[in-house]
Queue: 3 jobs
Job 1
Amino acid sequence: MAPDTLTLAGTDVSIPPLGVGTWAWGDKGTWGMGGYDASLNEQTIRDAWEASIDAGVTFFDTAEVYGRGESERIIGRLLAEDPARASRAVVATKFMPSPWKVNVRGALLSALRASVDRLGVKKVGLYQIHGPISLRSHAALAEALASAHQEGLTDAVGVSNYSPAETRSMAGELQKRGLRLASNQIEFSLLRRAPETSGLLATCAELGVLPLAYSPIGQGRLTGKYSSANPPKGKRTFSAHPMEIIDHVVDELRAIGEQHDGKLPSQVALNWLMAKGAVPIPGAKNRQQAEENAGALGWSLDGDEIERLDRVALPGIRSFQNRFWQHG
């Protein structure tokens, strides 16, 4: 069974073994808020926030680019309106290291100050480099993160989409500056097992870096509510395998879930990730989704069930976008 809490390296910040990804909060293009998904609004998000925290899922991941800052603004309003739950929440956000941001220290500090302003907080629990696309060195990025930490704008620092070698390099540069690399956020699911087979999980374990798994249920594809006859809407480009292939994975999830008092396919998929040592951060658009996510906690798959899922897991899709953005 996953531990009750995990501590971000080099800090006293504790997070649960399951979090919430908030890409959909305020996003129209991919997730349809204000567009094709009329059911997604700020009230349903508030319901998801309340249900998540009440279930002990208190870690929320956002980014400056989600909804062009609207995800952070929504979280800021929730924090301000609900101080009791806010006191339990740990918020992580990210810096987009676009190649043209040559003065990376100045750009990062400016971006983080804007993020904490939108969030209405003095600092965040975790600040992450969003992807391995900066033209500056790991030393320059580490120096920028160290400055953010020194200024009291973040408790912990992390990266996202970094390869094993990049993770090791960044950890080393941060160590020179008296900091630990707390996390590497990567796409990891039964539809993209690459972080395990590439050795990234082993590298993270060696370095004490916590793997955070985004798109842990394949952008909804592992919930069981989609099929080849009913594919998901929007621009959900991660793990976009043909649904005919995914259906076989969902069948195995459903069969295992039935052996655990009717656990949902998504709950089994999340439990598999926790068994691998990752912290999944599924999205939650409403109370029901938040409660379903929390149903992945409090029980464990056995070794045989993990092996069954390993056998049907897909390695991932190697596209140009993935090669550019997803090194991890």
Note: The chain has a mean pLDDT of 93.
Job 2
Amino acid sequence: MFNFKFEFINRIKKTLFPFYKNSEIQFIFSKLQEDFPTKPKKAMFVGGCVRKHLSNEKIDDIDIATSLTTDQIKEKFKKTKLKIVDSGIKHGTITIVSKNFKFEITTLRKDVKTDGRHAEIEYTENWQTDSERRDFTINAIYLDNKGNLFDPQLGTIDLKNRNIKFIGDPNKRIEEDYLRIIRFIRFSIEYESEAESSTLEAIKLNLNGVRKISKERILNELIKILKNENFINIINKKNLKEVFLLIFPEFKYFERLNYLKKLQNRLNLNYKIILSILLIDGKDNHEYFAHKYNISNDLRQFLKYTSDNYKTMLENKNFFKNDLKKNIYLIGKENLKILNFLKFSENKKNKLDEYLNIFQRIQSLNIPKFTIDGSYLKKHGMNEGLLMGKTLKILEKEWLKNDFKISREKILEIIKKQLS
């Protein structure tokens, strides 16, 4: 009931106070339109922010299309306090950063030549022409700063019907940039869309083209897919699932999603956890993926940590029994919940009751803190340094071994031994 009220209030706020009425956004448009008071509009919103506005979703970054050139854009903002970033200038994009927003401002253009990865472009002042080079109809809806729509590809109809549709010939759109195959998967998942047969044929015909795309761009799209709250529903989309696994054959444990769909409310899911569920086994499958896509150190370490603990779990029959309290302390409750899920999903013979029992124990057990620290050791004659660190580890190990207990006599005995 609370969620319904919150959603209803949010919708009312978005209707009465749409994003484009924000003062920072209005300032951007006033600068772009400056010196052209009597001419046609020089700028309109396009892409994700329009799509999300129409769908009552949260808007983050803002894309603006303009008939101004990149030099004209820079000139208009150079005397303002806003940050100007021109790293995308070769693609016709200038980024303007204000206090609360990042604006990607791109000159209207048409593709002159494409190779499946990059496009040679030519600037235009024709909004229709600009719309024809975009990927999907739902991404070619334009909105001015007064709330008026320009919808040359009828994207609002497809958005309402949750239909992800390429603009014009799907083959041509895909051949312009093969990443659009993965983007199609992403939007189909997000809007729970059913693919048309002609679109699926075009995708399968052009699948080999994905090899031409940089691994960085592919990984970026994949992470967006895994972050989507509807991702798990892909298991019910036979054609989409087939294409997804042809692109990402490393996901050998995709069927774990069948279990995850039933138990997802018991895990604090994020894209890292979902990735580990798709990859982790006892054979370092994740290492091949990490190398292939050159993933971040943070993600690499998370997968390695989960994999190492998974191997320990497989080797230790007491992992979720006598050693559970110790493992909660060493590994953490959330990480143990992931391992419990992996254990449950690895074998169809594993029983749900056992999984739930372990889950409840992980939830309910309270683990004490290890309270001995460097200041305690200092009081007993030990100086800071490697010896202090080593001694703390010995004391902690003894404390864990004795069910989170250690006597004062034992502490002093260990300190004395280390100082001798």
Note: The mean pLDDT is 91.
Job 3
Amino acid sequence: MAPLKLYNHPLSPPCRLVRLVAGVIGVDLKIEDMKDVYKDLKTPEMLKKNPQHTVPILEDNGIYISESRAIAMYLVSKYAKDDSLYPKDLNKRVLVDQRLFFDQDFFHRILNVFMPVFQGKQADPSKIEKVNDSLETLNRMLDSKQWLAGDKITIADYAVAISISALEFIPDSGIDATKQPNVKQWLSRVESSHPKYAEGLKEYREALKKMKQK
């Protein structure tokens, strides 16, 4: 099988989710980094592949898939040796889907804090409060549970943990996920769940460090 192609940005948490899931299930990706996502993704060629002009974009035998969570679902459903990361059983899958939709809102809340800070502005305290509210919700979801959606780790755990890692962009925001005890313990479990997760987190932190040094 020819490697699947991923249009990628090294610092994008959604791209990292796709790279992680592919690595965990043993799918090779040919990575094409977008140097300037605001420019490169708006060419006529790229807009045909993804009218939303966002990364990640997965190319698989002429099919183009955008949205990181959709790509993760697709990869596991098509290429994984088993369905533990995204169960076929609808009673189990629906819980994973719920947590993925939670993550979609959660990540956008983080972006609403991150973007002003990245642009040299002050973050809106009300936006910070919304992120902290989501972390409290996450803490409740994890009450007496090892994982977010069932008794095994799933793509939902990976997605939410990677969203939380985006907070490392803004260490002075006053947002600390580890203040939530269940979240803190769960993050530790996710980080040690697979070598590919630890590897990806290390690469992300190194890329973040290089960006801040520029």
Note: The longest helix spans residues 90-118.
